[in-house]
Amino acid sequence: MKRNETDVVVLGAGIVGVCAALHLQRRGRDVVLVDRNGTAGDETSYGNAGLIECASVFPYMFPRDLGHLLRYAVNGSADAHYQVSGIPEFLPWLVRYFLASSPRRAAETAKAALPLIRRS
Ligand SMILES: Cc1cc2nc3c(=O)[nH]c(=O)nc-3n(C[C@H](O)[C@H](O)[C@H](O)COP(=O)(O)OP(=O)(O)OC[C@H]3O[C@@H](n4cnc5c(N)ncnc54)[C@H](O)[C@@H]3O)c2cc1C
Fold first, then answer.
1. CA distance 19 to 12
2. Does ligand 1 come within 6 angstroms of the Cβ of 10?
3. Which residues contact 82 (CB under 8 A, 6 or more apart)?
4. Owning domain of residue 110
5. Which residues of the chain have pLDDT under 70?
6. From residue 52, how far is each of 16, 37, 40, 47, 57 by CA, in Å?
7. Is residue 11 located within the same domain as residue 26?
8. Same domain, 106 and 119
9. How many CB atoms lie within 10 A of CB 116?
10. How far apart are CA 24 and CA 5, in angstroms?
């Protein structure tokens, strides 16, 4: 069997994988880009609007008002749906999301992401 040798294997040829692979290549690395579909940009990166959208620098925050929370709790919103059996698995993540959604933490997140989005 023929052995292929390379410096880096990038898994996933969406926009993130393609950019990472190109950057590494520019830095002189030998890169192999692999995607389970055998093509690039066929999943999430296929259907976006094609612009770098700076508004996303501010994260979607976990709702804190009772009305929204109740609607989500009874699966009464089209935005989010959950299965009760999944609660033990996603609860720790949900708590972290809730804590990260305080106005102070959200502002810190936006500030940290700003230099990255400015460059793009
Ligand atoms: C409707 C919609 C509109 C959007 N509009 C915008 C917009 O206008 N502007 C903007 O900036 N963002 C937009 N976004 C968000 C943006 O499209 C995504 O954030 C971005 O495409 C994600 O890229 P990605 O490379 O992380 O993921 P993906 O494009 O999903 O790439 C991941 C790749 O990894 C591959 N993969 C997964 N598992 C494996 C594995 N085990 N082995 C090998 N390969 C694997 C998949 O096949 C896939 O090709 C939009 C998103 C949606 C859904």
1. 11
2. no
3. 75, 90
4. 54-120
5. 1-2
6. 13, 25, 19, 13, 11
7. yes
8. yes
9. 9
10. 16
Q: Ligand 1 pocket, 43 CB below 6 A?
A: yes
pLDDT digits (tens, 9 = 90+) for 91-114: 999 999 999 999 999 899 999 988
Residue 2 Cα to ligand 1 midpoint, Å, equals 32
Would you give the end-to-end CA distance of the chain in angstroms? 42
Q: Is the dihedral of CA 14, 15, 18, 19 positive or negative?
A: negative
Please tell me the pTM assigned to this model.
0.70
For residue 11, give both structure tokens: 């898994």
User: Among 110, 116, 119, which Cα is nearest to 58's?
Assistant: 110
**Ligand 1 contact via 45 beta carbon (within 6 Å):** yes
